[in-house]
Amino acid sequence: MKKVVKFYADWCGPCRSYAPTFDKLAEKYNDQIEFVNVNVDKDTDGLAAKHNVRSIPHTTLIKEDGTEVKKVGMLSETQLEELILS
User: Fold this and answer.
1) 74 vs 42, higher pLDDT
2) Range of the domain at 52
3) Total count of domains within the chain
């Protein structure tokens, strides 16, 4: 199953602006794609380090069949949807 991971921080304004876009698509595709939110300040599993996330505002990571696509920065709903469906 495809997984979309959003790395963010609570103190990050652009991250808060991006959340509704991410959440809307998570709801739309919840039966087909797994959506995960990772707060980098509370990341006790070390996922941010594992995926070399070094940029806040947000990093969005898409994983499927061992392949990763990572995008840094604000994505529009259309851009995110195109990215996850490609």
Assistant:
1) 42
2) 2-85
3) 1
